[in-house]
Amino acid sequence: MTRTLIENGTVITATDTFAADVLVDGEKVAALLAPGTFDGEVDQRLDASGKYVVPGGIDVHTHMELPFGGTHASDTFETGTRAAAWGGTTSIVDFAVQSQGESAMAGLEEWMAKAEGNSAIDYGFHLILSDVNEQTLKEMDTAVDNGVTTFKMFMAYPGVFYSNDGQILRAMQKAGENGSMIQMHAENGIAIDVLVEQALARGETDPIHHGRTRPSIMEGEATHRAIKLAELAGAPLYIVHLTAAEALAEVTMARDEGANVFAETCPQYLFFGMNELGNGFEGAKFVCSPPLRDEAEYHQEILWTGLATGDLQIVSTDHCPFCMDPYDGLPAQKRLGEGDFSKIPNGMPGVENRMELIYHGAVTEERLSLNRWVEVCSTTPARMFGMYPRKGTISPGADADIVIFDPDTPHVISAETHHMRVDYSAYEGMELAGSVDTVLSRGRVIISDGDYHGSAGDGQYVERGFNELLI
Length: 471
Ligand code: DUC
Ligand code: ZN
Ligand code: ZN
What we know:
The structure is a single chain. This protein has 471 residues and is an alpha/beta fold. The protein has a domain at 56-371: TIM Barrel (Alpha-Beta Barrel). It has twelve helices and 21 strands. The chain has helices at residues 77-86, 104-115, 134-145, 165-178, 189-201, 208-212, 216-233, 245-256, 267-271, 299-309, 354-364, 370-384, and strands at residues 3-12, 17-25, 28-33, 44-47, 52-55, 57-62, 67-68, 71-72, 89-97, 122-128, 150-154, 181-185, 237-239, 261-265, 314-315, 402-406, 411-412, 431-432, 435-441, 444-448, 451-452. Strands 1, 2, 3, 4, 5, 16, 19, 20 and 21 form a nine-stranded mixed beta sheet that branches. An eight-stranded parallel beta sheet has the order 6-9-10-11-12-13-14-15. It is globular, with a radius of gyration of 21 Å.
């Protein structure tokens, strides 16, 4: 078993900032020691002088290989998790998919097979429910027994992933019984489809109309409805990829009333607005759902404030990349929607960039503390998704998933240098203040000195428990 000493760094957890040397023994953190006091034998020493030593990032919203709109997300578990590692993320929770007319557990088994032997970092699964019926409700219990304790449902995408209010209520009632949690894609897809049809009939086919036909009030409405259904069912609720002030207001109100309502947002909603969807078909690079919001309505700053106040608890990525042009054997996926914005595959790349982006936007730009950065990117994801204290902190007995972060070496994002399997970066040319220096995954150094030292299949499946942040 390899013993490693991470020396001279500043350890940052969700609650504390302190100088300490971190002793790693095999896959686990063995001890935190006063600097310079360890006098035993180690196999390697990592110098973290002038750097932060933080728990590895946990991205609880990724879509490796997701089938969508006649194609599939371009990152495989192998390429996407390797890219995640480069960016300081050491665990993901990806979405397995129940297809309509199929069993939920069949979907889970399919995704387990995609990840096993391929993932570079540890991984768990949520399960997307696309067909809630008696069998699916029973399978929710089986999934929980297998460490899948969260189920995503869609109020959007009629005919594909969509569930009606009755199906949502039934699944929430089951979650209330078995301790699991429903994650909601909260957009009123029925109303949105009417707007899309009307826009296309007017000849409005460019990517900008993706944003215009998915207005923020329809996210607010769906968020309200989901909260009320969860209240009726007596079940906790987690709103995924929250983008809009109206939706955050609903979450805040529910939380103020003591409800078990939680929410995440994603970097693209913190850094970009709807203008990015203009510029002709180039805007397709920014097509995701819910869409980027109107700059004039100040959604971005409202989301940052939500992270500061705690009304938003997590930043995940919704990593779901599609290529603009033929690349690495993949077709021009986004171009499926040339001439019809509704056919542009929805999703943006980001799993590699989250830790550095949020450090920059939060800490460098003085919106959140260093500790809150760690909390929203690692600790709360671990606690809310049943992986704590094995993941999400640096303490004796925890998995040694550790990032040495250099706050003084900037990183310029570019598709030329990133590791995601996609031919563009939404953040092309953006200079971020700090960068990931070294990454340990269960005690093994997988990123150091600008090189990747891991391999496909190093990652293990994480059986998750329940949300420990319930009131
Ligand atoms: N939104 C996206 O942008 N892509 C995949 C699924 C989703 O809900
Ligand atoms: Zn979604
Ligand atoms: Zn998603």
